[in-house]
Design a protein that fits this description.
Blueprint lengths: L2 H33 L5 E4 L8 E6 L2 E12 L13 E7 L5 E7 L12 E13 L4 E10 L8 E8 L9 H5 L1 H20 L4 H17 L2
Antiparallel strand pairs: 1-8, 2-7, 3-6, 3-8, 4-5, 4-7
């Protein structure tokens, strides 16, 4: 193969794979944003007394978080009844000190058994930390409410984020050019492999696996 043809193949592969990576980064940012990656969620059974359930999380700088409880229910029998359970939530700082420890008794939370989904805010907190230090969210049920047996209930501690609105769709639209460019990069890498260098094939396949992993997320 002429040297200029080989250079053209290398240039095509580098350009297509680099652009594919850029599109993938934008797409993955949207997936991580909407999946709330790394933000703590604890499932609790409000129909039974439970011991502490905990989940670690990390704080990236200074942010405001909302603590709330959510329930999903599809049994119409007790829809609309107010929560009569007592539950406790704690947040432990990286140094082991208690940042928050609060008992939410029956009637103190405006939470009812929903016909589909419902949530109730428990509070808003401001945290400031470094990502290499681990915080802990804990929750337990002190007094059960058997009527919530059919509900899937979670305690969530989510970072307050801006609503991207329709602009947030751009993250997902980037999946199209990312896929096209990856295919182009793959076929170009096969042409290069036929002449000797196989590294572009493995690099492109690795990028494709990562892309497919987040596509199925």
């Amino acid at each position: 193969m002429n040297s200029w043809k080989l250079k053209a193949l290398w240039g095509t592969w580098i350009a297509s794979f680099t652009l594919a990576l850029a599109c993938m980064v934008v797409f993955i940012q949207g997936v991580l944003r909407d999946n709330r990656a790394g933000e703590p969620v604890i499932q609790i059974d409000l129909s039974a007394v439970t011991d502490w359930v905990s989940v670690p999380f990390r704080v990236w700088g200074k942010d405001t978080y909302t603590l709330f409880i959510s329930s999903v229910n599809h049994d119409p029998k007790f829809v609309g009844v107010p929560l009569a359970a007592d539950f406790e939530v704690a947040i432990i700082a990286p140094d082991g000190k208690v940042f928050l420890r609060q008992v939410y008794s029956a009637g103190s939370v405006n939470h009812t058994l929903p016909s589909n989904y419902g949530d109730s805010r428990l509070g808003t907190l401001e945290l400031n930390g470094r990502p290499f230090r681990q915080w802990t969210l804990k929750a337990r049920v002190l007094k059960p409410d058997p009527r919530f047996k059919t509900a899937y209930t979670e305690v969530k501690f989510w970072k307050n984020r801006y609503d991207p609105g329709m602009g947030g769709l751009i993250n997902y639209v980037m999946i199209i050019p990312a896929g096209i460019l990856l295919v182009l990069a793959f076929f170009t890498s096969l042409s290069l492999a036929a002449k000797g260098p196989r590294a572009p094939v493995f690099i492109t396949l690795t990028g494709g696996v990562i892309f497919w992993r987040f596509f199925l997320a």
